[in-house]
Write a structure and sequence with these properties.
Strand content: 35-45%
Oligomer: single chain
Mean pLDDT: 95
Number of helices: 1
Order of helices and strands: EEEEEHEE
């Protein structure tokens, strides 16, 4: 049986999180010269740099990376648009 809100069956995020936040601008960086940043997760690499998202989010939240379909399911349930962080990868902070 699929979810009436998002259409997910085993992937429905409804009720999984108590708080969902979109990463603010200062929590996402494009760095050309570095391969690693302590406390950050690299999510995407291009010829123009490497994209990083901070591991620990605001209000005691943690980073959750999801694909394009799951991003739409999260948005349907929580009303928060996940942030694009590379190719088919989106980021949200959850608790």
């Amino acid at each position: 049986m699929s979810c009436e809100i998002c259409g997910g069956v085993t992937t429905c995020p409804g009720g999984k999180y108590s708080l969902v936040l979109r990463p603010p601008d200062e929590y996402v960086r494009n760095a050309e010269k570095v391969d690693q940043l302590p406390g950050w997760t690299r999510t995407h690499t291009t010829g123009h740099g490497k994209w990083f998202v901070q591991d620990a989010g605001p209000s005691g939240t943690r980073l959750e990376l999801v694909g394009a379909k799951q991003a739409r399911r999260v948005e349907a349930h929580y009303g928060v648009e996940p942030r694009w962080v590379g190719m088919c990868t989106y980021a949200v902070y959850v608790r």
